[in-house]
Amino acid sequence: MFQGETAITVDDKGRLAIPTAYRELVADACANRLVITYNPFESGCLWLFPQTEWERVRDQVNALPSVKAVHRALQMKLVGAAAMVEPDGAMRILLPASQRMAAGIEKKAVLLGMGNKFELWSEQAHLAKIRQTIGEDEISDDMADLRL
């Protein structure tokens, strides 16, 4: 559903405009109801889900037994921090200040369409991640089967 990389500017109030190319897709996918939360696997990045996709993810995460610390950590970072956001008339969403600060997202950010969700990266974290190459010893069996 979502794919592509877009440079984004966050205004002084912590709002970002949904890129024109995604506006109709977002409206169709979730009637402009989005959920923003932490990426629990990589720093410098937030996840932005259409509400329906979020509910599926949320339910899976909440179904994990909370007796394991790693499950509780995942539940805290994904479900506990989740915030519903809806675009205003100018198709801008307000990013929670605590999430912006934790991810290091300031004026410049990068929005990546990742199929079922968006990833919102701080400009610095995105650049560092893109500059990393995948080493031969990191290639999984699943990756080895790809025809790239």
Automatic annotation (TrEMBL):
<protein>
    <recommendedName>
        <fullName>Transcriptional regulator MraZ</fullName>
    </recommendedName>
</protein>
<feature type="domain" description="SpoVT-AbrB">
    <location>
        <begin position="5"/>
        <end position="53"/>
    </location>
</feature>
<dbReference type="InterPro" id="IPR035644">
    <property type="entry name" value="MraZ_C"/>
</dbReference>
<dbReference type="InterPro" id="IPR035642">
    <property type="entry name" value="MraZ_N"/>
</dbReference>
<keyword id="KW-0963">Cytoplasm</keyword>
<dbReference type="GO" id="GO:0009295">
    <property type="term" value="C:nucleoid"/>
</dbReference>
<dbReference type="GO" id="GO:2000143">
    <property type="term" value="P:negative regulation of DNA-templated transcription initiation"/>
</dbReference>
<dbReference type="GO" id="GO:0003700">
    <property type="term" value="F:DNA-binding transcription factor activity"/>
</dbReference>
<dbReference type="InterPro" id="IPR007159">
    <property type="entry name" value="SpoVT-AbrB_dom"/>
</dbReference>
<dbReference type="InterPro" id="IPR020603">
    <property type="entry name" value="MraZ_dom"/>
</dbReference>
<keyword id="KW-0238">DNA-binding</keyword>
<dbReference type="Pfam" id="PF02381">
    <property type="entry name" value="MraZ"/>
</dbReference>
<keyword id="KW-0804">Transcription</keyword>
<keyword id="KW-0677">Repeat</keyword>
<dbReference type="InterPro" id="IPR003444">
    <property type="entry name" value="MraZ"/>
</dbReference>
<dbReference type="InterPro" id="IPR038619">
    <property type="entry name" value="MraZ_sf"/>
</dbReference>
<comment type="subunit">
    <text>Forms oligomers.</text>
</comment>
<keyword id="KW-0805">Transcription regulation</keyword>
<dbReference type="GO" id="GO:0000976">
    <property type="term" value="F:transcription cis-regulatory region binding"/>
</dbReference>
<dbReference type="InterPro" id="IPR037914">
    <property type="entry name" value="SpoVT-AbrB_sf"/>
</dbReference>
<comment type="similarity">
    <text>Belongs to the MraZ family.</text>
</comment>
<feature type="domain" description="SpoVT-AbrB">
    <location>
        <begin position="82"/>
        <end position="125"/>
    </location>
</feature>
<dbReference type="GO" id="GO:0005737">
    <property type="term" value="C:cytoplasm"/>
</dbReference>
